[in-house]
Amino acid sequence: MIYIGCHLSVSDGYAAMGRTMSRFGGSTFAWFTRNPRGGRTKEIAPGDVEALQEHLRSEGFGPLVAHASYTMNLCSANESTRANGREMLRKDLERMELLPGNLYNFHPGAHTGQGSEAGIRQIAEALNEVLTPQMQTTVLLETMAGKGSEVGGTFEELRAVIDLVKCPEKLGVCFDTCHTWDAGYDLVDDLDGVLRHFDEVIGLGRLKAVHLNDSKNPRGSHKDRHEKLGQGVLGAEAMRRIVRHPALQGLPFILETPNDDEGYVAEIAEVKRWMRE
Ligand code: FE
Ligand code: FE
Ligand code: ZN
Q: For the chain, which domains are there?
């Protein structure tokens, strides 16, 4: 089995997200650690985190997958953007320690003209400033579509970051199916081959979460436009095979499809049907 859920808003607090996801029928969720524009985080109400933890235990939730702000770019050519990113990373990870044992996912970054080698080095430097052997959060690099100057459009680039990090045991990868497809990996006709390649380059042991998205665009388009499950180019059959793949069992799967609440409830139910079949 897998854990399934979608992104929720943290604006009503942590325990509220747990209750909402149970109402949606899911067993994990994601949230943006800060609102994409402001960058501010809200104070946590007393008892809120404890109430969520109790809910996760009693409802048998899987690991949660927090998502860093899109504005965080650890490898921008602009020094102050990079410094801002490092500060966001540090504060986000500090807060994640209130919920030990969960996952924190971020987009490796866009090198904005510096070249991917420089980008990879800067991402690793930022992680080396912030990761500690004591922390109880696993930090995930997301597989990217390779749009513009994005780092992480190949498994090799993610591996190169991991190789430069001093606490590699704190690092994992979040496999975004839309991004990986858009990057050129054939999840429709060669899912086994793609996962084998992932295993050879990065190691399946590092695969800690999946972003389950269909794509609006053909393979290798480097576009990054998500589609509802079964309504995109990957299609329902490919989505179903991903959910049921033996190498991916036990992982949290997060929907990032263009849906309202009812749409997510329907997709979560569909994924659970695929699991049961
Ligand atoms: Fe993402
Ligand atoms: Fe994603
Ligand atoms: Zn995306």
A: 3-38+45-276 (3.20.20.150)
